[in-house]
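Annotated sample (chain length 123).
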Amino acid sequence: MDTWNRTPDHTPPPPSLVYATIRRRAIDLGRSNDRRTRRELRDDPARPAWFESETEMTGMRDLLESGMKDLHDDQREVVILRVWSGLTFEEIGTALDISPNTAASRYRYGIEALRKTLKPLLV
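Output written by the structure step:
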């Protein structure tokens, strides 16, 4: 709404700007609500985060390992280099002889596949 008031002649904003602004704010609100819900569940005093049973941790570890094994070799390689080695996409691209954009897209697709695998745990 702030951007709408910046027109010098106070003409109404174009519809595309109105729709884009409403869409962005709706997405931001949804993300904010999701983060708050996760934070409240995590901070629930009835279930401290440090008090997870060994069975839950083993199940999570098994699911993650299974998800990593199911990834395509190219995606798995980039995810490992990015997450566990802390390399940038440019460094990964140099190491694997691919462009940084290709490294970023392989990472994005790999993470999305892992999210689908781990979705039962994230609810």
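Annotation: The two ends are 34 Å apart (CA to CA).
Annotation: The helical segments are 15-42, 54-70, 73-84, 89-96, 100-122.
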